[in-house]
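ZP: hey, is the adenosine-5'-diphosphate complex queued? I don't see it on the tracker
AM: it wasn't, my bad. submitting now with these inputs:
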Amino acid sequence: ANALEIENLEKVYGTGIKALRGIDLKVENGDFYALLGPNGAGKSTTIGIITSLVNKTSGKVKVFDYDLDTDLEKAKQQIGLVPQEFNFNPFETVQQIVVNQAGYYGVPRKEALKRSEKYLKQSNLWEKRNERARMLSGGMKRRLMIARALMHEPRLLILDEPTAGVDIELRREMWTFLRELNENGTTIILTTHYLEEAEMLCRHIGIIQSGELIENTSMKNLLSKL
Ligand code: ADP
Ligand code: ADP
């Protein structure tokens, strides 16, 4: 099955703004896909719809064959979302944050504790597990957001502008981390407005502009055209 299938997706906000004008998109299982486009192009709206935070106006969305209209809960289980803004409780500890997240997805507590060790170690945060999240550096907070998104073991990880406003050193560290995750089998979709980021990481790329997908191709193919 494909990780994601989108057919003729449209979004008109209550304000009358047409944010998406018929998007068609497939992302294969195991792919590393970048959705690139300027501010206001429709990237966040697309991600919001896939993660069911935003209602679509029309069109079809399937996540590993689960249709959002008919199998929403199953579809949600397949997806881990890393939003752009830090949205954890800064006064909770690192381990509480990831364990509680697993709880929301119905993972039993014992299993959640086991996974917290795995994913906090993988994110280089295990030593910090008893620290309150507010004490972490910016890079650690970003890794915490990713560890939290992995706790229910989603097959598709979606990151909204994962390195916006991040310095180049930290950006490289994040890239290495994401590449390893993808090599271990997680399908990744990220939005970015850095072509360099898409180029460094991604196998396929979609370029979105004014609510339309104006390019959808392999990174190799795109680079050969520039
Ligand atoms: P939905 O159809 O997904 O429920 P709405 O059209 O109701 O979305 O809008 C959601 C909220 O976001 C509204 O309160 C709206 O006023 C607000 N909003 C309006 N314009 C913007 C914008 N450009 N960016 C972010 N939020 C906006
Ligand atoms: P991007 O993530 O590429 O910057 P968005 O999906 O946030 O683009 O926005 C696409 C268009 O929809 C923009 O014109 C934006 O102002 C508008 N928009 C985004 N969110 C809302 C909202 N909640 N209500 C109304 N308009 C919105």
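AM: back. The chain has a mean pLDDT of 95.
ZP: great, adding it to the tracker
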